[in-house]
Design a protein that fits this description.
The structure holds 2 protein chains of 2 kinds.
Chain A lengths: L1 H28 L1 E2 L4 H21 L3 H19 E2 L2 H30 L10 H26 L8 H27 L5 H77 L3 H14 L12 H16 L3 E7 L8 H20 L8 E9 L2 E9 L6 E3 L2 E3 L14 H10 L3 E7 L2 E9 L5
Parallel strand pairs in A: 3-4
Antiparallel strand pairs in A: 1-2, 4-5, 5-9, 6-7, 8-9
Helix pairs in contact in A: 1-2, 1-4, 1-5, 1-7, 2-3, 3-4, 4-5, 5-6, 5-7, 6-7, 7-8, 7-9, 9-10, 10-11
Chain B lengths: L1 E6 L3 H13 L6 E6 L2 H9 L6 E5 L7 H11 L4 E6 L2 H6 L7 E4 L4 H20 L1 E5 L4 E5 L3 E7 L2 E6 L3 E4 L3 H8 L4 E3 L4 E4 L3 E4 L3 E4 L4 E3 L5 H13 L3
Parallel strand pairs in B: 1-2, 1-3, 3-4, 4-5
Antiparallel strand pairs in B: 6-7, 8-9, 8-12, 9-10, 11-12, 13-14, 14-15
Classes of the chains: A alpha+beta, B alpha/beta.
Chain lengths: 441, 236
């Protein structure tokens, strides 16, 4: 009973796995269209049924190939946003991938079963095992491609990725082991079929779970970062409120101030009047109230870092002249500002020979670009250069994901086609950044 | 002579700015005009006067500084408008009219001198430097500030300016020798770009603020970056 339908089952399982993998592949290549999850799933099921029906009724290799490309392309077209030719190339790529894996399977068969390989076409068990193994290999291959493509973006370590990759490798061995006996004897075994189906199921689920974990980790680090941001902003609002209260008080006091000044001038005491005005000026000093610009997010970070620098006995000067809001993504800007300033503070902290510690921060806006320049003193022995990159002496291990390090600054700058330059003069470390102020998807 | 205008409704402040200008040592080399309202300054523009640098107070009576600047921009896109204000909020609006720089009140002597000197230097470069080309019947001087990029064509060069394109019988490497110090940078075998028109350094192309993209060669990348940094941040 099972044996008669085995070929159909093979095709069906083949298609399920094929669609699963192609969806995963496209997820990383293209943007999902905004479709309800229910209709997406039912759409994919429809395609699965159509594909299986076509596969059962056509036996020709070439036509199957063409239909494969068309099906994969239509999945891309139906569920993803993007240029048509990219979708087509992705579909062809995918077909090539599956051909490669099938070839690899054939090679493995040749190695494992040696002489008994002749009966491939006759023995359904052969076909079945071939299908299972080639699909596991396909999963593996796509996984490697995806991993390679987003190496930098994800916080998942290489070790855990290798561990996950070991699952399909082991399962190939397991599948061959299970089916070895019936294949060599040219017989059929229900248990072997079920075992293989179970193995491929486990593989799929393992990757699905791994994927969710990756997404979860990425989301977590963004959330942690945002929480930090919010805290900074809260502090900034408190600053502003105190500033505001002060302004109110001054407005209230204005009349008495004017009377005092008037009194000085009446008595021709010009110098006293000047002094008095000078005192008023310092009371109104915006910078002391933490108002550097109209951009609250930027102010929050700079003030926070400035406070930290003051704590460490670092002389800081800040010159900020920027618009109220930017086209650039706030998070990206925060990454840059947080990193350059933290970097400068840490460099100053490592000065242990008693020489002066200072940070000069300048941020301006010119010709639709954000300009940032940070100069700070540093101890030149501690920072070394590797392959043209400056590595701060702090172990890079502590740069856990978002938050620290020159690498992040460089990555964001690159995203915006910006320019990033580091310069180490004698005892002065200079970072210069030009970031085109635009939206980047 | 450098034409400078001060537009400020407070006469005391006007005099203070004038004094500061003279303190920098510009008395001999500038032609200074003072206006106490945006309307008067615009009137002067209507009469055909042009200024290289305008020191513009933001809080003016009728027309405010930004409105005044917008109207002036209609006459003259290239003049350097330096905004003078005591309220940061207004300074920020200055970006919409492409302000050259900002000076906060009370005016700090050192900063004032730095901004003005920088502006004067930029104007001198812009006004005086030219590139001479030989047309069929005469020699023509092209303002460097109007040249966007220069393209090599066999042993001639095609000069793309804001208005039209010209050709000149000269090799591209000899053009580099002539203009290399004036903000022109070699970006590939075929192109020299005026750094003033660069908006962005893309992965493979230089994006000009006219929207045009020029393919650059990898070996010149570092030099392009260096020149661009110098141009954008040299005076920060």
């Amino acid at each position: 009973m099972l044996k008669t339908y085995l070929l159909d089952i093979v095709l069906f399982v083949n298609n399920i796995v094929g669609i699963f993998v192609v969806v995963r592949f496209l997820n990383h290549l293209l943007m999902k269209k905004n479709i309800k999850e229910v209709s997406r799933r039912s759409g994919l099921t429809m395609i699965l049924i159509i594909a299986t029906l076509i596969n059962i009724n056509f036996e020709n290799f070439l036509s199957n190939l063409m239909i494969g490309v068309m099906l994969y392309y239509s999945i891309g077209e139906l569920f993803y946003v993007g240029k048509k030719h990219i979708k087509l190339v992705a579909a062809i790529f995918f077909i090539v991938f599956s051909m490669i894996t099938e070839l690899m399977t054939a090679t493995i068969f040749g190695l494992v079963f040696d002489a008994s390989i002749q009966g491939v076409r006759e023995n359904v068990m052969h076909l079945f095992l071939g299908g299972v193994i080639s699909k596991i290999l396909l999963i593996l291959l796509v996984e490697i491609v995806i991993k390679f493509r987003r190496r930098n973006a994800s916080a998942v370590s290489l070790t855990s990725w290798l561990l996950v990759i070991s699952i399909p490798v082991i399962s190939i061995a397991l599948a061959i082991l299970v089916v070895y006996e019936p294949v060599v004897n040219n017989s059929f075994s229900n248990i072997a079929v079920f075992a293989c189906l179970a193995i491929i199921y486990i593989d799929l689920i393992a990757f699905y779970l791994f994927d969710s974990i990756v997404i979860q980790i990425d989301e977590n680090s963004i959330i942690r970062f945002k929480e930090k941001q919010l805290l900074l902003q809260q502090h900034q609002y408190e600053n502003i409120i105190t500033g505001h209260k002060q302004v109110k008080k001054i407005r209230h006091d204005m009349l008495s101030h004017l009377i005092t000044i008037d009194g000085y001038l009446e008595g021709n005491k010009v110098d006293e009047a000047k002094n008095y005005i000078g005192k008023l000026n310092s009371e109104l000093d915006f910078e002391r109230q933490g108002i550097l610009s109209e951009n609250i997010g930027v102010d929050a970070i700079i003030n926070n870092r400035k406070a930290k620098a003051n704590e460490c006995g670092i002389q800081t000067s800040v010159d900020v002249m920027i618009p109220k809001s930017f086209n650039m993504d706030d998070l990206d800007l925060c990454v840059i500002l947080g990193n350059v300033l933290t970097n400068a503070i840490e460099a100053c902290q490592r000065i242990d020979d008693g020489s002066s510690k200072y940070i000069q921060f300048v941020m301006k806006y010119k010709r639709d670009s954000i300009l940032i320049e940070v100069r700070n003193s540093y101890n030149e022995k501690i920072i070394k250069e590797k392959n043209g990159r400056y590595i701060s002496s702090k172990a890079s291990r502590s740069n856990n994901g978002i938050g620290m390090g020159l690498g992040n600054i460089e990555a964001v700058t690159k995203k915006y086609n910006g320019v990033f330059e580091l310069d180490m003069k004698e005892n002065e470390f200079v970072i210069k950044l030009i970031i085109p102020d635009k939206k980047v998807a | 002579m450098l034409e400078i205008a001060i537009c400020e409704d407070d006469i005391m402040q006007q005099e203070k700015l004038e004094m500061l200008l003279f303190e920098i040592g510009l008395k001999e080399s500038i032609n200074l005009r003072k206006f106490d309202s945006g309307e008067r300054l615009i009137k002067s523009y209507e009469l055909g006067d042009r200024y290289g640098i305008i020191l513009l107070d933001i809080q003016l009576d009728q027309l405010d500084g930004i409105q005044t600047a917008e109207i002036i921009r209609g006459y003259d896109k290239s003049c350097l408008i330096i905004i003078i204000t005591s309220v940061m909020e207004y300074a920020v609006e200055g970006y919409s009219i492409d302000a050259y720089d900002f000076i906060m009140k009370p005016v700090d002597k050192v900063k004032f001198a730095r901004v003005i000197n920088k502006a004067v230097k930029e104007l001198q470069v812009r006004m005086n430097k030219t590139y001479l080309i030989q047309t069929r019947d005469k020699t023509k001087a092209l303002k460097l500030s109007e040249i966007q990029f220069i393209e090599s064509n066999r042993n001639r060069v095609i000069i793309h300016t804001n208005k039209e394109t010209y050709t000149n019988n000269e090799s591209i490497s000899s053009v580099v020798d002539k203009l290399g110090k004036d903000g022109f940078v070699r970006i590939s075998r075929y192109y020299i770009a005026n750094i003033y028109y660069v908006k962005e350094i893309g992965a493979k192309t230089l994006i000009l603020n006219t929207g045009e993209e020029l393919k650059y060669s990898e070996i010149y990348r570092d030099n392009i970056k260096k020149e661009y940094l110098k141009f954008m941040m040299g005076d920060m």
